[in-house]
Amino acid sequence: MSLIAVDNHMGIFAAVMVIAGLSFLAERTRIGRLLTGTVIAILSAIAAANLHIIPHDAQAYGFIFRYIVPVLIPLFLFQADLRRLMREASRTTLAFGIAAVGTVAGVVAAAAILDLSHLGIAAGIDPAKREAAVVGLFASTYIGGSVNYAALGEMTGLNKDASFFSAATAADNLFSAVYLSIIALVPGIHWVAKRFVKTEEGTTSASEMHMNPSPVSAASLCLAIASAVSLVVITDASVSYFQLDGWRFIILTVLTLALATAVPQIRDWFSGAFELGVALSFAFFIAIAAGANLEAMVSVAPILILLVAILLSVHLAVLLIAGSWFRLTLPELLTASNAAILGATTAPAMAAAKGWHDQVTPGVLVGVLGYAVGTFVGSALFKIW
To answer: What angle do CA 354, 355, 361 make, to 5 degrees?
Structure first.
């Protein structure tokens, strides 16, 4: 019995959003920046559920999984003008392609070394498909981000094992923070830096790459939500009519990319959509974490830590070796890797902090590209594994 009753839907939703809001605030502190808001939100939700403040299972969480998760995809992808991406960030796009290959190589290597079939048992997935599900899940999140993680969790059914899903998210965020520190130090390692061409080669001026986003307004947010929900409705109707079970998130991604590329002005019309998506993604992680069992989480933690460590090590090795062959600069490679592993928000931030001003906008663009292709790659691995 929890303090907030299982049938108090509004109370549970309020608790979810309070935890999300406090996590964003906590991220402004020194410790919060190290942990990241996502980890703070997950740990807070696990604590709240295990202290019986909020229930482990409730219809309110089901509402988030059923209705909010699909809306995240359009909200994140309204910026994904593919023509602009190829025009303004072609070299960084190539670097991102290498980073994506590195992620796939890393997750395949981890699956070859470790036995992943014992993960996600509580999800009730066919044992023969559990390893494929884990491979697809981690490939999608380390090419895209939380929206792809949510999509593959839904597609594979792994999100039904709340303990595994929360532990995997915590391991992901922990190692992502460590990885960010490592790639920030790489340019200062002389024997690595000397093997790459100088930054000035093939870069675009900072003035050309500067972004001027339109101000967020009530109208832009309303239009973004209306369009995102409409795209989900059209997708669901198409899936039902053509009997394309299992293709929901892929079709939704294709429709959103087509709209964003055909009508690039929606990036300005729907200003604030990306930030709204980030806020709602916190609600998703909190709802997942609330169902987590601490004992079950601890039992799967060691293998998840090894999985992520192997994946990221192979990813970085592929990135640096192939990047050198293609004569890409370290800023291009590391910005692309950051975009793949951590997403479109941290990539431009690191580029700006390191003084790589010509990589700020490409960092955003390839990060959005990751959201666009992460679900494709993850689902492909899941289906063919």
So the answer is: 100
User: Could you tell me the sign of the dihedral formed by the alpha carbons of 307, 311, 312, 314, in that order?
Assistant: positive
> pLDDT (tens digit, 9 = 90+) per residue, 76-117?
888 878 887 777 678 999 999 999 999 999 999 999 999 998
Q: How far is CA 222 from CA 15, 115, 251, 269, 271, in A?
A: 24, 46, 23, 10, 10
Listed in sequence order, the residues at least 6 apart from 111 whose beta carbon sits closer than 8 Å to its beta carbon are 131, 134, 135
Q: List the one residue out of 281, 269, 250, 219 whose CA is nearest residue 375.
A: 250
The token pair that represents 110 in the structure block: 């981890």
Largest CA distance in the chain: 63
Q: Which residues of 104-141 are buried (b: 16+ CB within 10 A; e: fewer)?
A: bbbbbbbbeebebbebbebbebeeebbbbbbbbbbbbb
Exposed e or buried b per residue across 149-174, where buried means at least 16 C-beta atoms within 10 angstroms of its C-beta: bbbbbbbbbbbbbbbbbbbbbbbbbb
CB 336 within 8 A of CB 85: no
Q: 310, 340, 307, 377: which is closest to 131 by C-alpha?
A: 307
C-alpha 46 chain-centroid distance: 20
Domain ranges of the chain: 72-384
Distances (CA, A) of 195 to 164, 190, 198, 324, 353: 40, 9, 9, 7, 23
**274/343 Cα distance (integer angstroms):** 12
Q: Helix crossing, 127-141 with 146-156: angle to 10°?
A: 170
Convert the pLDDT of each residue in 179-207 to its tens digit: 877 887 888 888 888 888 776 544 443 33
Counting every residue, how long is the chain? 385
Distance of alpha carbon 55 from alpha carbon 292, whole angstroms:
11
